[in-house]
Amino acid sequence: MPLRDAAELVNYKRLVDASEDMEAQLRARSEELQARNRKVLDMMAGRDRFFRSVSHELRTPLTSIIGFAKLLLEDTNEPLSDNQRQLLKRVVDNSHKLLAMVSDLLDLSKIEAGRAEVNLDSVDLDEFISQVIGNLTPLAAGKGLSLRIDANGSLPRVCTDEQKLSHILVNLISNAIKFTEQGTVTVSGKAGRESFSISVKDTGIGIAEDEIDSIFSEFYQAQGKKTGERGSGLGLAISRKLAGLLGGRITVKSKPGSGSTFTIILPLIPKSAPPKPTD
Ligand code: ADP
Questions:
Q1: Ligand 1 centroid to 211 CA: how many Å?
Q2: What pLDDT score was predicted for residue 277?
Q3: What is the spatial distance between Cα 246 and Cα 266, in angstroms, rounded to a whole number?
Q4: For a Cys-Cys bond, which of 38, 103, 200, 250 suits 172, CB 3.0-4.6 Å?
């Protein structure tokens, strides 16, 4: 064999050895990553099981606390003093807040564990927005705020999960009411060729620019501390994940002192939607 061919053969063998070596390393790394992935999934399933059982354990006694407190408040045979009534009303309010927090934790854990099913249906947007506004008007009125719709009644029907969209919109409007001391909360809808959006605009305290990204993190409460308003700090984290499940997103524009606008943008027909039936 000529000398040059022998040298090429040696080089070729070295290349084969090196590539076999790399292949073995890649295989080992891939197995390691798969094992880690399994561990993370196990941990998430464990967290989900934990939340489910804890929320059951918390929900039952909380529901009876609320029930018994209401019985005492409504008892006409042995009426309570004004002071006792006020204290008991605080028991009921705080128990409701705890119940809401438990339910938020459960929702978040359900989404993260991939247990949240998307049920698509045809939704009349105008009717949907009016209904949500109607349910939240007493909350706004209780703070002396005006809650209004800015739409001309010409929004189309869309294909989405009505319950999940309602969950997001209720979260955004409740926040707008919570973080606004005076003025108006305005809800408006818009539809394009492929997507639609619903905006919630308030005249409240606004959000500092460097906090905008953080407010979508679990348990983050920026302005809550300043206003004394306490929530679970989970509403926006859940809303962003729900919007993602529906194939969309949530955007925010805000100016401290002037107010905020949160917008949900969703596809008119999500990619996972079944094809339109043909007649
Ligand atoms: P929560 O309302 O329970 O505190 P969220 O996840 O819904 O939790 O919101 C996180 C934080 O984002 C709030 O604590 C508040 O600091 C800020 N935030 C949300 N919506 C508004 C709003 N409309 N105006 C001002 N701040 C807001």
A1: 10
A2: 44
A3: 7
A4: 200
Show the domains of the chain with their CATH numbers. Answer: 1-116 (1.10.287), 121-267 (3.30.565.10)
269, 133, 264: which is closest to 193 by C-alpha? 269
pLDDT in tens, 129-143: 999 999 999 999 999
Measuring from each residue's beta carbon to the nearest atom of ligand 1, which residues come in under 6 Å? 171, 175-176, 179, 202, 204-207, 215, 220-224, 231-237, 260
Distance of CA 209 to the CA centre of its chain: 21
Distance CA 217, CA 117 (A): 22
Q: What are the tens digits of pLDDT across the range 211-256? A: 998 999 988 887 545 555 667 789 999 999 999 999 999 999 999 9
Q: Whole-model pTM?
A: 0.78
Strand 184-191 with 121-124, pairing: unpaired
The letter for the amino acid at 201 is K
